[in-house]
Amino acid sequence: MAIKENKPNSLNKFLVIWSGELLSTIGSGLTSFGLGVWMFEKTGLATTFALTVLCAYLPNILISPFAGTLVDRWNRRLIMIISDTGDAIVTLVVVLLLHNDLLEIWHIYLIVGISAIFSTFQELAFAAGVTMLVPKKDLARSGGLMQMGQAIQLTISPILAGLLYAKIGLYGIIFIDFITYFFALTALFLIQIPQPESNQSTDKNSTGSFWRDTLLGGHYLLSQKGLLALTLFFIPVNFLLNFPAVLLGPLVLSFSTTTVYGLIQTVSGIGMIGGSLLMGIWGDKIKNRTRAIICFVLFSAFGLGLLGIQPKILWICLGYSIILFCIPFISGTMQGIFQDKVEPSVQGRVFAFKSLLSRSLLPLAYLMAGILADKIFNPLLMPNGKLSKGTIGSIIGIGPGRGIGLMFIISAVFLFFVCIMAWKNTDINSTETG
C-alpha cells in the first residue's frame, strides 16, 4: 500500500525516538542483571532464573494478537507513551518494596509479568511505527540500529550493574532504571509518529468487530505461504537459541563470580554491536534475505555448542559473542522482510501473530530449561553422576554447571538439523519472490 501523506525521507525522527528508548533499555538492563544476581544469591537454582524469564515472555505470547489489533486501531505514539509510563510505575513499585525490605521472589515474578504486558504494546507499536518513520530503503538500517540498541544494553548494562551492585545495591540500580524512563518519554513527546492510511480491501471485514480485527493478522499471515513458513522456522530456532537466556547465568556462576559474569556479557555484547554495525551498513545489500537468515542461524548454532564445551571463560565468551553477533542479522533481516511485504495498516496485527507463532514454544523452553538443568543434566555430570565416567564427562568435564553445558551442545546439534530442513523448504525460498 502506498503512503500518500507524511512519507518519510530520512532517519532523523526515528533516531530521536531510538536514542530515548536506548537509554531506557540500558536502565532496564541494569535491573535485569541486578535482579538475576539477587535471585541466584537467594536460591542458588537455575529454575528461579527460568521462571523469571517465563514470566517475562508468557504475557507477550498470550496478549500479542489483541495488542496488535489495538496498535493498528490506536495512535502508536500514544501507546508507546502509555507503555513506557506503565513500565516506569512498575519499576517504582520495586524501588518502594526494596526500600521497605519487603521484596520477595514471588513479587518479582508478578512484577516481571506486568512489565511484560507494557513491553508487548511498546514493542509492537515501535515496530509498526518504524515503517511510518523510515524510508523503505533504510528499513534494513533501522533494523540494524534497533538490534544495536540491544547490543549496547548487553555490553554496557552488565558491567555497570556488576560495579554498581557492590556500591549501591539492587535498590540503587533499580532507581537509576526508573530515571531512564524519562529519556524515552521525552523523545516520544518531541516526535510525532504518522498513522498509516486505512486499506479498505484489507480492512473491509474488520472495522466493526474487534475479534475479526484481531484474527485478520492471522488470516493475512496464513495467506502468505512464504512469510508463514519463515515464521514457523523460527519456532524451533527461538526454542533452541533461548536456552542461554535462562541458563548462561547459572552456568557461569557455577564456577565463577558475579563480576566475571558481567564481564562475559559485556565482552560478548561487543559481538552484537559489531553485528549491528555491519547490519546497518550492509543490510540493504543482502540479495537473498531468507538464505542469509538460515546461514546466520547455522553460525549461531556453532556458538551455542561452544558455550557448553568447557567451563572456560574464553570458550563461553567466544560462543556467546558468535550468537549475539548473528542476532542483528537474523532479527533485523526478518523484520525487514515483514516490513517490506506487509501493508502498514495491518502491520501491528501481522507482527503480533508472527510473534505469537514464532515464540509459542518459549514458555516451554524456559520452564524446561531450569527443571532439566537442576533435576536431570547437572546430576548426570556431577562426580558420581551416570555420565561422569564416560566419554561425555571426559570431553566437557564434570562438576557444577556441566549438565548445562551438555544441554547447550544438544541444542546446537538440533539447531543444525533445523537449518538444513529450512534450506530445502520451497515455501521459505519463495519469500523473496512472493
Description:
The radius of gyration is 21 Å and the shape is globular. The chain has helices spanning 12-43, 46-73, 76-99, 105-133, 139-190, 200-203, 210-223, 225-241, 243-253, 258-282, 289-309, 313-341, 347-358, 362-380, 391-396, 402-423, 426-429. It has 17 helices and no strands. With 434 residues, it is mainly alpha-helical. Helices cover 80% and strands 0% of the residues. The two termini are 16 Å apart. The protein has one domain: MFS general substrate transporter like domains (Growth Hormone, Chain: A).
The CATH architecture would be: Up-down Bundle
Return the CATH topology.
Growth Hormone, Chain: A
The class by helix and strand makeup works out as: mainly alpha
Mean pLDDT: 80
What percent strand?
under 5%
Specify the biggest β-sheet: none
Distance between the termini: 16 Å
| Number of distinct helices | 17
Uncertain stretches of 5 or more adjacent residues: 1-5, 200-207
The percentage helix is over 70%
CATH fourth-tier homologous superfamily: MFS general substrate transporter like domains
Specify the overall morphology.
globular
H-E string: HHHHHHHHHHHHHHHHH
Distinctive features:
mainly alpha; Growth Hormone, Chain: A; 17 helices; 80% helix; globular
Offer a concise description of the structure.
The chain has 434 residues and is mainly α. It has 17 helices and no strands.
What topology emerges from the helices and strands here?
Blueprint: H1 12-43, H2 46-73, H3 76-99, H4 105-133, H5 139-190, H6 200-203, H7 210-223, H8 225-241, H9 243-253, H10 258-282, H11 289-309, H12 313-341, H13 347-358, H14 362-380, H15 391-396, H16 402-423, H17 426-429
